[in-house]
Design brief:
Blueprint: E1 2-10, H1 14-25, E2 30-34, E3 50-53, H2 55-63, E4 76-78, E5 80-84, E6 101-105, H3 106-109, E7 115-119, H4 120-132, E8 137-141, E9 144-149, E10 154-158, E11 163-171, H5 178-182, E12 187-203, E13 210-215, E14 221-227, E15 231-239, H6 240-248, H7 251-259, E16 269-271, E17 278-287, E18 291-292, E19 295-297, E20 303-304, H8 312-328, H9 339-368, H10 372-386, H11 389-400
Length: 411
């Protein structure tokens, strides 16, 4: 069986679903290929996978009518961010604490929120509902086993034996992308030797919408992200040996580790169900290209960055925005796989993706160093940036979405 479409999206995650939905709503005939999965109802438990979605992601999901379909009572706005350096136990000559510090807030950025913390399950549930009612879109359950890209069209063969013909294949199939491999797009890969330890907690004091982050040198990077109510989500990017220890701790012992963080103001912690942390290995992946003949990569298939800035999912949604824009500017006679159109997409993403990769990788390397002079300089630099409004605003524009530079956006 052969089915012709304008675009075939390969991927079962949030970026793949959003890409298929956005491209279909733009008027393209779209097929989404994703493995069959059992339908799951909404769980009352708090999902351990959360995303800090910025204004670009908010705008895209709102335009797709997905944002309003999520359970808003499970979304927490980030009103401010407090970043702590690793010199908290060291005092300068005046006896004052020498730790670096950096703070951002929505008021200073002239927005209603810096970002929004959204559970993976909440986001995917809304996307799945939207996919069921989308026009110009078919969801095909199966696994792609063969890809061919010819001059006039491309095709995907599924494990069922069916063949899907298309003008453009969009690879949204994650860090170990099958589409990327089939398109012979090389990558630069580096394991960070760290694991992201994630879990959710209730606290005895309110977080006031503040996302908090600690750079702890040899112990990695700790982020506590606000959830609705007096709850927070932990993302601890820890060296593998420490991560193994943290993952093996009893809930009360892990709570004690968090309660002892320098300048911790949330009181006592208690782990939420499921009372066991999860771990995800961290790595850097740079694709040598975002495109190939009749192929475009989006999301983790195109780039994987360190989570210290919480920008992985946001980069994926920005990819979708850029691909939509490129397709909208193609010549009337050109199909969706037109080489010039894809080149326009790749050029539009090159600067932002490279900047985020260099920034997150550079910060990870900088704060992993235990050299005394390096520690002093990084803490001093952090505090200096905090006193430079223009530079802080530039950082916010990149981290929380370019919408901060000119608009005010609410949830």
């Amino acid at each position: 069986m052969k089915n012709m479409s304008d675009i075939c999206v390969i991927g079962s995650g949030a970026v793949g679903k959003a890409a298929a939905l956005a491209l279909a709503q733009a008027g393209h005939d779209v097929v989404l290929v994703a493995p069959a999965s059992a339908a799951a109802g909404r769980s009352p438990d708090w999902d351990q996978r959360v995303y800090a979605l910025n204004h670009v992601a908010h705008g895209l999901l709102s335009s797709l009518k997905v944002w309003g379909a999520m359970d808003v009572e499970r979304i927490a706005p980030v009103d401010a961010m407090a970043v702590h350096g690793d010199g908290a136990m060291d005092a300068d000559a005046s006896g004052r604490q020498a730790a670096g510090h950096l703070a951002f807030d929505a008021y200073g950025a002239r927005v209603n929120a810096l970002a929004w913390i959204v559970e993976d399950a909440n986001l995917n549930h809304a996307l799945d509902a939207a996919l069921r009612f989308a026009s110009n879109l078919r969801v095909v359950q199966g696994t792609a086993v063969r890809m061919q890209c010819e001059p006039e069209r491309a095709s995907i063969t599924l494990d069922s034996g069916d063949t899907l013909a298309t003008s453009l294949i969009v690879g949204a199939d994650g860090a170990y992308s099958w589409v990327r491999t089939q398109a012979d797009i090389g990558i630069d890969y580096r394991a960070y030797g760290q694991t992201a330890v994630v879990a959710n907690f209730a606290t005895t004091r309110p977080h006031h919408g503040v996302a908090r982050q600690w750079f702890l040198g040899a112990e990695g990077i700790v982020a506590l992200l606000p959830l609705p109510g007096q709850r927070v989500s932990l993302v601890w990017s820890a060296p593998e040996s420490l991560a193994a220890l943290l993952l093996g701790l009893a809930p009360d012992d892990l709570c004690e580790r968090l309660q002892s963080l320098p300048g911790q103001v949330l009181g006592e912690f208690s782990m939420l169900v499921p009372q066991k942390a999860r771990g995800f290995p961290l790595r850097l992946i740079r694709s040598h290209s975002l495109i190939a003949h009749r192929v475009a990569l989006v999301g983790d298939a195109a780039h994987v960055v360190h989570p210290l800035a919480g920008q992985g999912m946001n980069l994926g949604f920005a990819d979708i925005d850029a691909l939509l824009a490129a397709l909208g500017k193609r010549e009337a006679a050109a199909d969706c796989g037109d080489a010039r159109t894809l080149a326009r997409y790749a050029r539009s993403r090159k600067e932002e993706v490279l900047l985020m990769q260099l920034t997150t990788d550079g910060l990870q390397r900088l704060f992993a160093s235990e050299l005394g002079p390096v520690k002093a300089l990084r803490n001093l630099g952090m505090t200096a940036v905090d006193k430079l409004p223009f530079l802080k605003r530039r950082l916010m524009n990149h981290a929380f979405g370019r919408a901060l530079s000119s608009t005010t956006t609410g949830s």
